[in-house]
Design a protein that fits this description.
49% of the residues lie in helices and 15% in strands. The chain is of the alpha+beta class. It has one domain (2-64): Arc Repressor Mutant, subunit A (Orthogonal Bundle). It has a three-stranded antiparallel β-sheet. Helix 1 runs antiparallel to helix 4 and helix 2 packs across helix 3. It starts with a helix and ends in an 11-residue tail after the last helix.
């Protein structure tokens, strides 16, 4: 079940994640996470110069299927 897999993936992380934590969690670069934030693929909040991503919002986004292309994206 997707929910159980996501719960396992996020196990041990706090309610709010930093960009480096998200990058480590997903095995991607910090720059990639910043691109996702900029492009609206994930929701984040900027306080001063630091971004944070709420764990439950990120889990929800993944359960929706982030890998499904948007209608406005070109092939």
């Amino acid at each position: 079940m997707v929910t159980n897999a996501l719960d396992g993936l996020f196990d041990g992380y706090g309610r709010a994640l930093s960009v480096p934590e998200v990058a480590d969690l997903l095995g991607m670069s910090k720059q990639g996470v910043y691109h996702w934030l900029r492009d609206g693929k994930i929701t984040g909040y900027k306080v001063g110069s630091s971004w944070f991503i709420l764990r439950e919002e990120l889990k929800s986004r993944f359960s929706e299927g982030i890998n499904v292309p948007c209608l406005d994206e070109k092939d």
